[in-house]
Amino acid sequence: MPEMVRNKQVILKDYVSGFPKETDMYMTESSIELQVPKGSNGVLLKNLYLSCDPYMRPRMTNIKGSYVESFKPGMPISGYGVAKVLDSENPEFKKGDLVWGMTGWEEYSLVTAPQLFKIQHTDVPLSYYTGILGMPGMTAYAGFYEVCSPKQGECVFISAASGAVGQLVGQFAKLLGCYVVGSAGSKDKIDLLKNKFGFDEAFNYKEEPDLNEALKRYFPEGIDIYFENVGGKMLDAVLLNMKIHGRIAVCGMISQYNLDRPEGVHNLMYLVTKRVRMEGFLVRDYYHLYPKFLEMIIPHIKEGKIVYVEDMAEGLESAPATLIGLFSGRNVGKQVVAVAPE
């Protein structure tokens, strides 16, 4: 008989409107067989690290036609994570493999249609595969190099710049010889941007009564590239300050995720007068570049040319509060939950 174990899980109570709360999720315990059903093509995972990401907020709402499925009330929520394969009926994976990809917010997950990448490089922290070596790293790489077509010496602005993606975009831009400015929401984050990630300048958007004036101060000649993570008032101010033939990569809009009615954008006509290209993108369209990305980034990490800051919460029990903290900017750096020892 296969072994049965207890399996702690984080469950979505019901669809959320407005700002999410810890009580929108609850912990439960079920039991799970430590064996994959024969012939199922599935993989049984022991989850080690779970990733908290802004895109998870829209998944807590019942939205139709989104690029990513809504969570189901009464079921465990899911997201990117790092895990160890305990059993496999899938030819791509074997027992003992370390993987990253989509998994459940629980101690053990039976994944029937695996969207998983095998981890080849284990001489870096495994938690990096929730961040710099996982989805956020690929997002930064694809958004900056593929969507923005950057050139040496260009002026780059990044909002939510100390987060999982922003901190990398800034460092990629500096490696290319760009002038880089980031915005964030606390003194600690501003210090991090300037002193750890090497941004040329950074400002706290909460202390700026006029975002347009703030951007004019840091970009007197205008902005070539804007890496958009925020939306709303920040996007409106950026549009006033773009250079002719500037590029905007739209990665996300965290300022809008908790609003029942998204804010309007008023300055879109500047896309016409300044011939600006504004393009949204999804990282999954670029995963074919993952091997090329690893070739570039692993040496940079080992040589200390790129640094990465994580905010680590301990234990699955901490996951609901940790995810909610993301939307009030409580995290400093990439938010990760450590579920089990490696």
From TrEMBL:
Alphabetized, the UniProt keywords read: Oxidoreductase
Which GO terms are recorded in the biological process aspect for this UniProt protein? Answer: response to oxidative stress
Q: Indicate the segments forming the Enoyl reductase (ER) domain, all copies.
A: 43-337
InterPro entries from the UniProt entry: ADH-like_C (IPR013149), ADH_N_2 (IPR041694), ER (IPR020843), GroES-like_sf (IPR011032), MDR_fam (IPR045010), NAD(P)-bd_dom_sf (IPR036291)
The cross-references to Pfam families, in alphabetical order and at most eight, read: ADH_N_2, ADH_zinc_N
GO-annotated molecular function:
2-alkenal reductase [NAD(P)H] activity
UniProt xrefs under SUPFAM superfamilies? GroES-like, NAD(P)-binding Rossmann-fold domains
Q: Which positions carry the signal peptide feature in this UniProt record?
A: none
- Protein name according to UniProt: Enoyl reductase (ER) domain-containing protein
The species this protein was found in: Citrus sinensis
